[in-house]
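Schema walk-through. Below, the input block comes first and the output block second. Nothing else is stored per chain. Lengths vary across the set, and this one has 92 residues.
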Amino acid sequence: MIEFFMNIIPPETTHQQKKVSVVNGKPHFYEPSDLKKARSKLMGHLSKHVPNEKLVGPVQMIVKWCFPIINGHQNGEYKYTKPDLDNSQKLL
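--- output ---
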């Protein structure tokens, strides 16, 4: 079993915030700079936990997002504001 905690403030930018522009009549998808920074932040922290050997077979991943407490929310309270946690999982 691999288990670790990343002591970071989770990014509030999600995978769903990709942008599209039309170039020569064709859609061109790109990541804005804040999305690139969020992806880089996560990859930098995750790279420290790469297993020594390749994982084989089924894998289960459990993620617990711990956001800073703001605006009178309680510790352990479910998050119902942006970013949507499903989209945060996609970025991860």
